[in-house]
Design goal:
By secondary structure, this protein is mainly β. The chain has one domain (22-160): Porin (Beta Barrel), CATH 2.40.160. 11% of the residues lie in helices and 58% in strands. The longest helix is centred in the first third of the chain and has 17 residues, at 2-18.
């Protein structure tokens, strides 16, 4: 009986863990790279992880890993097909820069965006994500204000599974 109960509990936990929506895709704009989203269990909110190349800023040429918590603010019913969502949230980033010198960066990020989820497993979104942080190199320490140009929109296309 104990084995049957343990197997049943493991099956329920496995189904609950796998029932969460995930999506993977590409981003282009001020930040170009790959994007992964994982819906937080029991909510409409999403944890997003992006790995890519920062472009469109004066000192572009930096690889960044950005993690954000996207809180769904509203889901207006603008169409009968698909779903619209507006989201915003905080996040963190780490990265390395190459121009003008090799440096390590760390900072905070904010994100505000709009997404459309089609009736088939495709999600399109546009967001802005300004960031503020510090850059550390061998001979300098400076504030990384280039991320404030994150007001350049980033467009993403993701496959949902």
């Amino acid at each position: 009986m104990k084995r049957l109960l343990i197997i049943f509990a493991a099956a329920v936990i496995s189904v609950a863990a796998n029932a969460q929506v995930r999506s993977v895709g590409l981003t282009v704009g001020a930040f170009e790279g790959v994007s992964f989203q994982h819906m937080i269990y029991g909510t409409d909110n999403v944890f997003q992880l992006d790995l890519g190349y920062q472009t469109g800023v004066p000192h572009s040429g930096s690889m960044r890993l950005v993690g954000t918590y996207n809180k769904m603010l509203m889901s207006p019913e603008w169409t009968s097909e698909g779903t619209w969502n507006m989201y915003a949230g905080p996040g963190v980033q780490i990265g390395t820069g190459f121009v003008p010198e090799k440096a390590f960066s760390i900072g905070v990020v904010g994100v505000v965006g709009l997404e459309y989820i089609f009736w088939f497993p495709l999600q399109l979104s546009v967001d802005i994500r300004p960031s503020l942080g510090v850059m550390l190199s061998d001979d300098s320490f400076r504030f990384d204000i280039d991320g404030m140009l994150g007001f350049i929109p980033t467009i993403s296309a993701r496959y949902m599974f």
